[in-house]
Amino acid sequence: MVARTSRGARLIPLYHQVYLHLRDMIAAWPAADDGPLPSEPSLARRFGVSRVTIRATLAQLEEEGLIRRVHGVGTFPITDTMPERTNITGHLENLISFEDATTVENLEWSAEALPDAAAARALGPVLGLETCLRLVRVRSFADKPVSFTTITVPRAHAGLVDLPPQGNIPVIRLLEQRGVIARSAEQVLSAVAAPALAARHLLVAEGSPLIAMRRLMLDEARQPILHQESLYVPDRFEYRMTLSRTSVGQVAKWTPTG
To answer: Which pTM was predicted?
Structure first.
């Protein structure tokens, strides 16, 4: 169950993995089932951890009001206190709709910034050496921070966003209003450890696991017009995609559908 790198080091702390699994178990608990969760020994065997780890995880869940522990009887889920998650589908128009459903705070805006390493790699060896427009934003849903986003616009288009966006307007919309249209996007999802600044604004511990979504938007000539890296808190965010099977055989092929 433990996620590891090629050298065997854990990518996500074991304790936090168990915590996330138990939260998911509580969220999926049938409303008609008033029975207890599995016992501590059963959970320890299921996740391959010690009872000390299980006990500490249950203590945190109890502190958050997600379980009720009755001595000598068991541990019971309290499903009506589970926080609401945001979710989006895998299509770009729905990613924009997700942004419409949130509120935003601009933390940084600079028209003469150097791109960070991820943006420089995505923008290419030439564009990555130029100064660019850099915008850092925190998005919230239901008054809880959901994402920490860094947006980079290449120098060729940076002048089109001459002031920090007001309200909840996505930067890609501002570019489209000036005639720069995104025709395609390349997107990658991965897991990262929360850097200090993002952790502070997302209200999580530094080094906590976050979902990283990196998106490069391209114009009709497949030239980059915007790079975005969004860091999401895993237990406040879901990414959903519908797949359709396109071939049958020993190696099945699937493709995203609407």
So the answer is: 0.62
